[in-house]
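Something for you to look into today, if you have time. Could you write out one complete protein record for me, on any chain you like? The space below this message is yours for that.
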Amino acid sequence: MPPDAPQPAGRRGSSEFRIGFLVHDVSRLRQILFDQAMRPHGVTRAQWWLLAQLSRSGEGGMAQAELARLLGLGKVATGSMIDRLEAAGLVRREADALDRRVNRILVTAEGRAIQERLVEVGRQLNGQVMEGLSPKELATADRVLTALKRNLRRALREEEPG
């Protein structure tokens, strides 16, 4: 739509619509860059995300069902990803001490070593992505994106059937 064209009713300005496209495009492009950087390490972005979640769980690992919930994946998809990571020696399954029906997923020593390498790769990527931005600009971006995330979470909670 040309800049001088009449605006649709209720539209306050292009930025309210543009932000969604920008957030999506930035995320998509960062994912592509991340995938390219992870490929030499034999880890996909989804596998890296699983390993990152496990790294936050401490030495006791995490129940497979909880991991699926955090990843926003089904139990079968999560199980398949764990199978591949287990075959690569990066994680192991262990029966829960209190409930033998529950599988806990733990990162192996080899998995921790690759996590350390991937964290460094992530830092390098972040440096590329944030190149030329001042600390003030980064703080503003952080504040704005955090507010958007909070608003989205609030909207999602409001839509849940109560």
In short: The chain is about 65% helix and 5% strand. The two ends are 41 Å apart (CA to CA). The chain has one domain: 26-156.
